[in-house]
Amino acid sequence: MLKNIFEKQDWHFVLLALLVVSVNMIMDRFPLFSLGAFWGLSTETWMWIGIIAAILHQLYVMIIWRVQLETQWLTANLPRVGYIAYLLDYTMMLIARIGAIVLAAAANRDSFTFPEPTRWIVALTLAVPFVGVIYSITRYYGYKRLAGADHFEPAYRDTGWLKRGIFQFAPNAIYVFGPLGFYIPGILLASPASLLLALFNHIYIWIHYYCTELPNLRRIYGPDRH
Questions:
Q1: What are the extents of the domains in the chain?
Q2: Structure pTM?
């Protein structure tokens, strides 16, 4: 059982360690990533709050998903409130993760030269696919499925790949286009710290996909999932 729960988590922790060390080295070497403060907290503090929020979020999801797949503990022991409690936790952690990116941008704003018209052009360019992801999740995919409802409800296991909305352009559109939204606060506020935190989240989401979600999808839907 433990072998299945921790499948590929050795790679997860190795890649996460390399990612955290790399971000820390960049912050130490280039002072512009630590300039500024907001609400009495330094930019560096907001950066580490964001990093810790992302790690706690993905570790929590990994543990809940894997334990549920292996033992069905949550739905068996807490059938009425278990998934709702998980969904609330998932949502709060996601909000904390995104909020830290915004607050890091506020703390570190205008720390590098980036003409305002160019900021808006780049931000709007990234916003188009990001809004497409949000719309398609809301209209076709559903927030519950985004949070991993297929780990809890067997009915999802008979569905195929969604091919509506932005998902017709990329089956894995949430991972392909969704993280682009992380960069928008840093671009609009010219914050290198926020952009670095966005990059951390972007890479870590893909680590989560390959080390946690993809093995789970192959267990749920079959080995052809990729």
A1: 2-221
A2: 0.93
